[in-house]
Sequence to fold (769 residues):
Amino acid sequence: MPENATEVTAAGIARLAGVGRAAVSNWRRRYADFPQPVGGTGTSPSFALSEVEQWLRDQGKLAEVPLRERVWQEVAGHPAGAGQALIHVGCALLLVRDRPTAWLELAAAPDERMAALLPQALGHVLTARFGPEADRGHGPGASNPARVHATSAQGPGGVHGASPPNPTGVHTPGASGPGSVRPPTAQDLLPSVPLLRAAAELAAGIGAGQAFEFLLGRQLDANPRQYTLTPPQLAELMADLAEPPKGADRAARERPVRSVLDPAAGTGALLRAVGGPATLYAQEADPGLAALTALRLALAAEGPRRAADGTHRAAPGPVVRTGDTLRADAFPELAADTVLCHPPFNERNWGHDELAYDPRWEYGLPARTESELAWVQHVLARLRDGGTAVLLMPPAAASRRSGRRIRAGLLRRGALRAVIALPAGAAPPYGVPLHLWILCKPEPGVRPAADLLLADTADLPGPAEDTSTGPGRPPGGKATGGKTPGGGRERFDWPAVRAAVLDAWRDRTDAEGVSRVVPVIELLDDDVDLAPARHLPRPASEGGASGLGEVRERLTETLRLTAGLVPPAAAPAAPAHRPLTTVGELARTGALFLHTGTAVPGSAAAPVLTEHDVLTGAAPTALASTEREAPGGGADDPVLLEPGDVVVPVLGGSTAARVVDASTAGAVLGRNLQLLRPDPAAVDPWFLAGFLRGTANHRQASSYASTAARLDARRLQLPRMPLAEQRRYGERFRELAAFEDALRTAGRLGGQLVQGMYDGLTDGTVTPG
Fold:
């Protein structure tokens, strides 16, 4: 194998071939000619990508590797690590976009010559975006303010000491002074040259910004425990909340957003959601992540503009610095118009002792257990008078007794303007209903606000009633939206949440069960508990007690329909011994086609059918499309559902299978789902879905880990039958699916009625009768 050749893990091979990891393990055992490991460990070996591709083609398991997959595999298998590879790619994509002629001249040279010339070319484009290197350590008022500056302070999240190893290209003071995203050396770039050529080819098709978004998204998906992410829908909501409310004075509403700060930038999602012209400032504790964020924001910005003299000049880039924000603030003189922040939660080692006399603690020294309130005060200290900040906070910060004195101070001075509870699943940790705090820095001579907006979107109703009567949709049933039973990630209607939050903030009016404007004096008790749920009593059910009658009527109608769908008595028979085939064999003969889902809600303009939707029989998760794609979501070709498709989850060991009907067609196939598209002249879709749900069939096609099971759809078995006989079975399976959906709807309505009666009887809105 050539030196520095790209390597790929078993998971990468599974992605290339569109199968599960269990299938790759089986190939290694069954085929003696399967490529041998060239690296990795005994439990997680790696293989040469070129050898794997050739073997897959020889076996008929791979026609052609998509360009985006090839580029990602080269990033993941880079000898210096994926993080270093992404920094090289980001620098090169800036050159491709901002100076395409210079890139084409470099790309025409051999690899070694190209690697030798690239540092100088990258230096020019980085200087144009981030300023001369000598100026990159200056304060916010510098003429070229964009830089990634690393402090020597030790902080959470992987911040190194004064002289750490520096694999990311972010220069630290312990080495040779302030620095930025610096041009890699020719020696560092040489193994990256094939990757850079491939990335430029990908950018030619989808754009430099989207190419980097795709690769960064894959890196984030591959290391979910390494990063705390802010979902794009939430980031856009927070950016919109930073606009002045309707009740603000005219000067505040007409003032454009000039400067936006994120003091805990992470991957830059919050700053990327900022619309309109703005100067972006960011600080991040991890040097490598700070470099990626700087490149991401620069690539998301517009390209060079044509100046009056005919030359093209790059717009100033973002101001990104590295360091522990609380201990070593990189912007001590900044007075930003807006601050957006998703701070780390529950940090004990945030600097309580050494920062005891810090001037930022205007509202009181936060307790050691109140790191979030330290971030709140830091944010207020970096706002201009009258500026607005939006923070994502854990719910405990609104009610812990150790923080009541600071919360009281925020209320008395009018700094805290709203506390908004989000549904569980809005952001990690996904099982907790997080809060948004909206703050405004008090202006001298202006009377503090006398009230606080409290809003709770945790129990918003679902979308409009779906009166369709197709299989699995009883009359009067509802498509699941809003907050679905069980809560959790991707299980609520983001457009409904977004609309409710923005309406509550901009109108600042009371809305039953959703928002209430509470006088500050009412909140200044012994606890200063600002949790919205405490101050917003909710109705017993949809529409309050008056809606229970409607729920009862719908339940009665659903039960009547369900009784008519009860299957007839089963006719016992001896076990049948039929000739069998597998899904994999059918795929090889063209009787059906297999597709793997990769979309997540918010990554596509169309609704996304998620794993949860398949398991619960819900309608596809209908989320509003966004101008900015979710990381990793912009470059994948979405798989659109067609009538007759069969969708099965690949995780969890459930025996679910869903046949796509006209109401679901057009949605995008979500991740952790496998789509089987049968040829209707060869395989009946209901026959296929019914036999895929067999318990024994799932058991023999699944692989089991210590905590989860994964289905290999190619190993699922079907009996060989004539099409007419398939349709006879398929009709019975269709009837069973309709009965199952009717039972599911009846259970949901029954739960609403029972809980509504309990709530009504206990709060006095319903009498015993």
Remarks:
- Residues 723-763 form the longest helix (41 residues).
- The CA atoms of residues 137 and 178 lie 5 Å apart.
